[in-house]
Write a structure and sequence with these properties.
about 25% helix; SH3 type barrels; 5 strands; about 70 residues; alpha+beta; five-stranded antiparallel beta sheet
């Protein structure tokens, strides 16, 4: 399932990033968002969500959240 469907406050493990856009993939990698890393949806917003990855919190839009597949 992707980040748009997960429970708020629960930690998940990133399985893969589903995108054909190399810039988007590089951006997510620079945030520490890659396979095997834990990720938590801290809060949902109207057009996206706030996620915690490693030691940082990031506001990502719905399109970006849909590209992150977690288990």
């Amino acid at each position: 399932m992707d980040l748009t469907k997960v429970e708020e406050g629960k930690t998940y493990t990133i399985e893969r990033i589903e995108t054909d856009d190399p810039e988007l993939n590089a951006f997510l990698f620079s945030l520490g968002c890659y396979s095997g890393e834990p990720i938590t949806v801290v809060r949902r917003r109207k057009n996206g969500c706030v996620v915690a990855i490693k030691d940082g919190r990031y506001n990502i839009d719905s399109q970006l959240a849909a590209a992150i597949v977690v288990a």
